[in-house]
Amino acid sequence: MVHLGKVPTHKELEDQKKDLPDVGGLDLQPHGSDQFTASVYGSHYAAMDLPKHEMPEEMMPKEVAYRMIKDDLTLDGTPTLNLASFVTTYMEEEAEKLMVDAFSKNFIDYEEYPVSADIQNRCVSMIARLFNAPLHDENAQVMGTSTIGSSEAIMLGTLAMKKRWQKKRIAAGKDASKPNIVMNSAVQVCWEKAARYFDVEEKYVYCEEGRYVIDPKQAVDLVDENTIGICSILGTTYTGEYEDTKAINDLLIERNIDCPIHVDAASGGFVAPFVNPDLVWDFKLEKVVSINVSGHKYGLVYPGVGWVVWRDPEFLPKELIFNINYLGADQASFTLNFSRGASQVIGQYYQLIRLGKSGYRNIMCNITRTADYLAASVEKMGFLLMCQTGGKDLPLVAFRLNPKDGHQFDEFAIAHQLRERGWVVPAYTMAPHAGTLKMMRVVVREDFSRSRCDALIGDLKLAVQELVKISDAGSIDQYKDHVQRQKKAGKHQKGLNQHYADEQHSLKGKHGKTHAVC
Ligand SMILES: *Cc1c(COP(=O)(O)O)cnc(C)c1O
Predict the structure, then answer these.
(1) pTM, whole model, 2 decimals?
(2) What is the arithmetic mean of pLDDT over 289-298?
(3) Which of 107, 175, 245, 316 has CA atoms 20 to 30 A from the CA of 428?
(4) Is 237 a pocket residue for ligand 1 (Cβ < 6 Å)?
């Protein structure tokens, strides 16, 4: 998540300086002119802190700027060892080349870059067909667009459902001021944002211990005349399970309720069609009116692309569409942002045609196998598995300590141990009403090979052994203190925004749910 940064005051900057050691006596010799120096580290810039708060008055040589920023970034984690994230960390060089070549293209400029725009439409068409859009009907008008990610796609989906509901209410002479949306309390944070930003009341179906997906009957029971739609998740962020969209669909039909379903297929949209082709979750279900997917997750593109598709313009009201006249050409547009890069859309097209269905199928089946292997290994180590295997859900492994083992440490301590070995395996507190359950989650991505998986298993074993040793020595409380202190002292925590630290409105604020990274 991008942080909302707080700009430090002048006084805070002065105070920070007071903490620095005094190296006044270290001025060995004055720097000469750097003008002709070829060495980055011999220049006076290397002896200075990077400018952080005020834009410097003078320029610096490009080699120096490059090197300094590159060095600074080495303290970031290694993307391939980051098992917290669904987001793509590997693409072929050819794809990268195409994307770099397109860096300077503004995607919105349809007139100037008509091929890029057409490439987006080709992707929309392929994705809509992958999701079984009703194109057998010759009058079908399936619509779709690229976005920055699933979050924007979900904002657009929410707006469309809200507008359709409002129009219907107003046409019937009814009150249209209290829209609500029904969803699982394990939704990704963007659903909370969408509801809040667009003034839609959130109606949650809460998880229970043992059930981390939406209960279809409870969901449909919550629907009333003010419900704009139901969100069903194809692969929840916590346990990766697919929600039963068909059951929700069937209940709505059975009870003759006019309520659309939006499927959040951010992660599952490029997995289920290949690994689990018999699962019915998409436009084959008549109540499913819109679907989003993240191109940058199992769509296999670097971050910055998502997709959303609507079954029919009935579910995408005209009032939301702008015909943008750009340099003489009219283009229908439904986005939150105007300018954006074209690279990600081009990268998506490369993956779709380079890999084809068989390529995606091979990759998705391979990582499903790796996930199953990891799941079996953690179970053997005594952890409780919180996800399914065999391709019944996303290729991730969610697990927790067995309370019967009476360990004195928790999942967060294990995460910390693994972090010291370079792995990012997050620990989470589950969605509310699930007994404040803690869990760990490993997302298996394309570049997480079997041998890397074995390395992780080895380190996980070591981490647990180490923590048992610390517990046996009676020092686990000191260890927990140490972890807490490290967290607080973390250099990068300084940037956290204290002004908003006590927000109480979200599922996190109210229930302590951790928003999963995805
Ligand atoms: C990742 C994710 C999102 C948010 O998608 P972005 O592409 O990161 O904006 C929404 N819903 C689910 C289920 C997700 O996994």
Answers:
(1) 0.91
(2) 98
(3) 245
(4) yes
